[in-house]
Write a structure and sequence with these properties.
GO terms for molecular function: 1-acylglycerol-3-phosphate O-acyltransferase activity. By secondary structure, the chain is α/β, with parallel strands linked by helices. It has a seven-stranded mixed β-sheet with strand order 1-7-6-2-5-3-4. Helices cover 47% and strands 13% of the residues.
Length: 263
């Protein structure tokens, strides 16, 4: 049954994406940028609905009151394709720094360009990165919310962290609050996994880190906060969903946390 539900979800997910892009593109590209954002937000909400109705996976959000009114940086743990879109309906005007290759994808790249997403060549240095930072400052000046995954790529639940320092540089140069976010999406929709699992879990939006800290101190504080709260939420999520088959990284981390508690 899990396989059947997962296959049905995948078919519905991609059909929903393709049909919406084709049918709504003329409207999307004629609308002003901010108004047009309602179309991808509605698509993201429909993805959450499909996960709930077909797979049986649902979530709730804690801490929406922690999101600042003006420009800020969201710093989520990144585990799944799901976490790249699931929170979009609750974000006012998000902007992503993304691989430039994604901008070359027909329709998707055009959608992203209209929303002024910031492409970057990951291997670039010097002037290219200066241009990326200038673009970032421009978008943040318009009270947008920048989405940055501090680890840079998806990591399995409970995996040893591999944070990158780039977010500390952006924090230093942009001067806005950083909002850490933890959730264990990967237990329900794993990286490059066909099977999706039912259950209910929490997304936790943590109190913002105010601008003005020394970058090194900020980086250490962000990593410590994300890892501490991610561990705490891993224990809660697994306890609330005892049916889940856990990846080895989660099994190992839970054993380490249990040993720490017993010591």
């Amino acid at each position: 049954m899990l396989l059947v539900r997962s296959v049905l979800f995948n078919i519905a997910f991609y059909t929903n994406l393709i049909v919406r892009m084709i049918v709504l593109s003329p409207i999307y590209f004629l609308m002003p940028r901010k108004a047009a954002y309602r179309i991808p937000k509605a698509w993201a909400a429909s993805c959450n609905w499909l996960m709930a109705k077909i797979v049986g996976a649902t979530f709730e959000i804690e801490g929406l009151e922690n999101v600042p009114e003006g420009g800020c940086i969201f710093a989520p743990k990144h585990q799944s394709a799901w976490d790249t879109v699931a929170l979009l309906p609750w974000q006012r005007d998000p902007v992503y720094i993304l691989k430039r290759e994604l901008m070359w994808i027909p329709l998707f790249g055009w959608y992203a360009a209209k929303q002024k997403m910031i492409p970057v060549n990951r291997g670039a240095r010097g002037k290219v990165m200066v241009d990326v930072m200038n673009r970032t400052k421009e978008e943040m000046a318009n009270n947008r919310q920048l989405i940055i995954y501090p680890e840079g790529t998806r990591r399995a639940p409970g995996a040893e962290p591999q944070y990158r320092y780039g977010i500390a540089r952006i924090y230093r140069d942009v001067g806005v609050p950083v909002v850490p976010i933890v959730a264990h999406w990967g237990l329900f929709w794993g990286r490059r996994k066909l099977i999706k699992y039912p259950g209910h879990f929490k997304v936790r939006i943590l109190p913002p880190i105010a601008p003005g800290m020394d970058p090194d101190a900020f980086y250490a504080h962000l990593v410590e906060t994300l890892e501490r709260e991610s561990d705490r939420l891993l224990v809660e999520t697994v306890a609330a969903n005892p049916h889940l088959p856990l990846p080895p990284s989660a099994v190992k981390r839970l054993a380490e946390l249990k040993a720490q508690t017993a010591a």
